């Protein structure tokens, strides 16, 4: 009997230890699906002051009032809009990938205030101090715009296929270069490249976010890795496995965690600090296949993920979308 008791204890003990982990509540769960017109989409962003979500669409900028739920399918017209950056004073600026322009508009009604020429295939749009930086994906340079004076102030030649970017508080812009598997550091004031940093184990870096409180950068790689790097000196702090098809990294500044929507597998990978303060993969939350970008509302903590079901296209023709499939998937954080 003692031997049997010992054997039972050996079997039961690991199960008891694992029980809390198995019962742990996921950090996010689905609470709503907000339907919108079908078609392509790209980046999403949240204007916290105006309480509004923006999504880049093929025909312009979609807007959602975060408090009332009122949806405006096309707030301002555009030509394959990729990124939208909310600005002070109720303004915003969007990039038009098909017309090689950026549009400055009023967030309240979509009134266009100015149009700027950019490089070829403008993509992500980020704040760069007092300026706006537009990543010209095909041309491989950055267009710098002064939204107050409403002029283009210059360009920075980076090279390669530029993806998302992030700015620190010392005038440095960090940008992922997708076809070179590197992260480039730019001195915005000098219009100069300061450093080129290799991203190990990374194929196709796309999404990028910087936690200003910790100085940690996270680059998401479409191939299924996330590279954690010290912004100050480029030290690689970790290379973590994630799901495939990531196109954005969403910072949850309040909790110092990073959320990575992985569209190919339809999951949200969560990176959070472990007991030693190092980032680790702490959860993989089911979302929907195709959900590869998104934005977080810092007031409610909700995550908004644009998604639609893409249909297989015929030879030589672009793929369409399943009718009625596009929606904003709303994920609620656990209490």
UniProtKB/TrEMBL annotation:
<protein>
    <recommendedName>
        <fullName>DNA-binding beta-propeller fold protein YncE</fullName>
    </recommendedName>
</protein>
<dbReference type="InterPro" id="IPR011048">
    <property type="entry name" value="Haem_d1_sf"/>
</dbReference>
<dbReference type="InterPro" id="IPR015943">
    <property type="entry name" value="WD40/YVTN_repeat-like_dom_sf"/>
</dbReference>
<keyword id="KW-0732">Signal</keyword>
<dbReference type="InterPro" id="IPR051200">
    <property type="entry name" value="Host-pathogen_enzymatic-act"/>
</dbReference>
<feature type="signal peptide">
    <location>
        <begin position="1"/>
        <end position="23"/>
    </location>
</feature>
